[in-house]
Amino acid sequence: MATASLPDKVAFELVAPERLLTSEMVDMVVAPGAEGDFGVLPHHSLFISLLRPGVIEIYDGGAIKQRIFVGGGFAEVNERSCIVLAEEALPVDEIDLEQARQRLKDAQEDLAEAKEDVARARCEREAAIAEAQIQAAGG
């Protein structure tokens, strides 16, 4: 009895609140996990990971095909697919460096004025996202 072979690609889907950014078969995905970057290849073991602000790299044909910035979220991985639900996401080449710098400045100013723990945590998160955008854009 023949067994069906598993595909040699990973079904990758990235969903942000405002749109589906990508849904395609790829060789590998590297994502910014909360505990460190992780790569997803075909036949990967099952897991779920929180994502920190950073860049998802999508590989096809042995090279990076696309880089997408995510502001956090989570990834669900199984042997055939990787699904990312991102809090915010956009292709790295669409990051407006000046806007990201202004976002960081605003977050730092708000943090300096924040008096409650919840407000401080929100400002720190906003600053972390802005810093990751600046780094992703090469600034």
Can you walk through the features of this model?
The protein has two domains: 10-92, F0F1 ATP synthase delta/epsilon subunit, N-terminal (ATP Synthase, domain 1), CATH 2.60.15.10; 96-136. The mean pLDDT is 92. The chain is an alpha+beta fold. The protein has helices at 97-113, 117-136; strands at 10-16, 19-26, 28-33, 36-40, 47-51, 54-60, 63-70, 73-77, 81-86, 89-91. The longest helix has 20 residues, at 117-136. Strands 2-1-9-8-5 form a five-stranded mixed β-sheet, with no helix packed on it. The protein has a five-stranded antiparallel β-sheet with strand order 4-3-6-7-10.
> What is the CATH superfamily classification of the largest domain?
F0F1 ATP synthase delta/epsilon subunit, N-terminal
| Mean pLDDT across all amino acids | 92
The description of the largest β-sheet is: 5 strands, mixed
Determine the strand fraction and express it as a percent band.
Answer: 35-45%
- Write out the strand line-up for the largest beta sheet, numbering strands in chain order: 2-1-9-8-5
- State the end-to-end CA separation: 57 Å
CATH class of the largest domain: Mainly Beta
H and E string: EEEEEEEEEEHH
Rg on CA atoms, Å: 17 Å
Question: Overall 3D geometry?
Answer: elongated
- Strands, count: 10
Helix content: 25-40%
Count of discrete alpha- or pi-helical segments spanning 4 or more residues = 2
**CATH architectural category of the largest domain:** Sandwich
How many structural domains in the coordinates? 2
Structural class: alpha+beta
